């Protein structure tokens, strides 16, 4: 994929920007909480070093591909990370997001996913976007379904069964949410 995204962009309520090293303290706090890690096969909080490695991967993805997971701000405050990345394991760009529990229930995840799909099927010219969700996480499943994703198959991810949802460009183009 030889396309890139601007370093920042806005949706209706969110600022979506390239992550920066200054986001590390937020990321350490986010992944030290029970809620964001509860659906992992081994629901253990990240160490500060694991959070630093996660941020380095996100920054590195932007360096290598010209796009990646955004740092997500609402009302001038960092609330999470999310967007699309190149998938080494599955066909299509991989959608992922993690929002701070204090920001849950405000529609930010749906708004973020809609912006990620606009980027994926717009400037990035993706043919397909996937989302991976554990069965124990019905809220994430609802967000994907609301945005047009459909269940495709169960896969093993990090040693645990995971539902793979997908959305192809033709279906996104013809959907009312596009």
Helices and strands, with pairings:
Layout: E1 8-10, E2 14-17, H1 24-30, H2 34-37, H3 48-65, E3 69-74, E4 77-86, E5 93-99, H4 108-121, E6 128-133, H5 138-146, E7 150-157, E8 160-168, H6 169-174
Parallel strand pairs: 5-6
Antiparallel strand pairs: 1-2, 2-3, 3-4, 4-5, 6-8, 7-8
Morphology call: globular
Structural class: alpha+beta
Main beta sheet strand tally, sense and closure = 8 strands, mixed
Terminal CA distance reads 22 Å
| Secondary structure tally, helices | 6
Explained architecture:
Strands 1-2-3-4-5-6-8-7 form an eight-stranded mixed β-sheet, sandwiched between helices. The chain is globular, with a radius of gyration of 15 Å. The protein has helices spanning 24-30, 34-37, 48-65, 108-121, 138-146, 169-174, and strands spanning 8-10, 14-17, 69-74, 77-86, 93-99, 128-133, 150-157, 160-168. The mean pLDDT is 92. The protein has 178 residues and is an alpha+beta fold.
List keywords for this structure.
single chain, about 180 residues, alpha+beta, eight-stranded mixed β-sheet, 6 helices, 8 strands
Short description:
By secondary structure, the chain is of the alpha+beta class. The protein has 6 helices and 8 strands. It is 33% helix and 30% strand.
